[in-house]
Amino acid sequence: MNKIDILSLSFEELQEQIAEIGEQKFRAKQIYDWLHNKKVTNFSEMTNLSAQLREKLEKFFWLNSLKIKKRLVSDIDNTVKYLYGLYDGENVESVLMEYKHGNSICISTQVGCKMGCKFCASTKAGFVRNLEPSEMLLQIYESERDSGKKINHIVLMGIGEPLDNYDNVIKFLQLISSKEDMSLRHVSLSTCGLVDRIYDLAKLKLGVTLSISLHAPTDRLRSEIMPINNKYNISELMKACKAYFKETGRRISYEFSLIDGVNDNKETADALIRLLKGQNCHVNLIPVNEIKEGIFKRSSSVEKFRQMLCDGGLNATVRRTLGADISAACGQLRRDNQ
Length: 338
Ligand code: SAH
What we know:
ten-stranded mixed beta sheet, alpha/beta, two-stranded parallel sheet, 338 residues, TIM Barrel, binds S-adenosyl-L-homocysteine
């Protein structure tokens, strides 16, 4: 018999499972509290349950966990980067960042990635598997436990394409929203642009902020650096983004990583202004992180590019670089470990 991953169950599912093993429903509330509020790592810690019930839980369920394989702490800004070992020996990364408004964690959603963006370290060795909802949750629980910090913001911007692991990501978001101390308004989901899934997500009206990895304003350029653009072009993507805003009222955030000599010139800035003008959105500029296998160099005209966008009427800021001394950009630690 396969044991059930108890941390991936919603409260309603846990209630059903508890009834299934012949226990009273109210037990589910106690167990859910141990799992998601007290965050125990072992059934034996559930001390208000009888030894008999704890044994029964062991028999039918398993409690997933992550192992800290590496912890890098930035001397510059206290950013912590974790390499987490999963139950099957695979690894993923999470990054814990301090901001004025609180602590933010960037979590992974898959082991590896299929999307093949040319500048990204996470996709270089291909795709291994989807993360379970429990494995996304545990990146938060474990980082809080280890750092002693309370996490207020979550970004799904680590290794993987969240909308390519749609069902588990939605389940994870629902688990997060059932917690009193966390609102989905403090969650951002970053996607390279799986258009069909953007419409699905919009319909759920979860309140999460959608970040679109745009990186180029024309199909010719975007297809060169992001293969997904051959499946869903920019015009389809823009339509989906407008629909997302209309449905949810949440302003879209466009990520734009500036690459020297590729997308950091005036012509690109003008095209981006034409593309986004009139949309209620924000452009997040990031100097591209140079990766080992990469051919792309960091742009030296980031500030100039930002000024051009602002002069053209767009709302654009340069993302603060955090953890520069610990290579905090996603995918690099896992690659180094392989
Ligand atoms: N698959 C999702 C989320 C993971 S990538 C997505 O594509 O959005 C998180 C963000 O980092 C994306 O905007 C991605 O395009 C960007 N990114 C990846 N590699 C980068 C690099 N080397 N330099 C700068 N940004 C990078």
